[in-house]
Amino acid sequence: LNFKKVQKLILLAPALNYMPPGIYPEKRLDIPVYIYHGNQDQVVPHGPVHDIADKIFSNLIWHLVDDDHSLHKTFFNLNWNLLLS
């Protein structure tokens, strides 16, 4: 990542558990990383994703929401103006 250009990451149900361990960054990323993950996600389990995210992001803002993988209930209710500011 180019830290001069990237101020934060917003990840929606990221499949971090499919990344080979060898490609994890050597140093934890310290920019804010917002993750929204559904507790009913049947595609990407939230437990392993949270564990991996804790290892690679030092400024993790984790949101486990009552939703599925597509975040149908959550996506349009997110405060995008605040998240993208």
Mean pLDDT metric: 94
Structural class: alpha/beta
Count of domain modules: 1
Arrangement of strands in the largest sheet:
1-2-3
Q: Helicity level, as a percent range?
A: 10-25%
N to C succession of SSEs: EEHEH
The largest sheet is: 3 strands, parallel
**Gyration radius over CA:** 13 Å
- Unreliable parts: none
Annotation field: number of helices: 2
* Strand content bin: 15-25%
Kindly describe this structure.
With 85 residues, the chain is of the alpha/beta class. The protein has one domain. Helix content is 18%, strand content 19%. The chain is built from two helices and three strands, in the order ββαβα. The chain has helices spanning 46-56, 80-83, and strands at residues 9-12, 33-38, 60-65. A three-stranded parallel beta sheet has the order 1-2-3, covered by helices on one side. It is flat.
What is this structure's SSE topology?
Elements lengths: L8 E4 L20 E6 L7 H11 L3 E6 L14 H4 L2
Parallel strand pairs: 1-2, 2-3
Short account of what is shown:
The protein has helices spanning 46-56, 80-83, and strands at 9-12, 33-38, 60-65. With 85 residues, it is α/β, with parallel strands linked by helices.
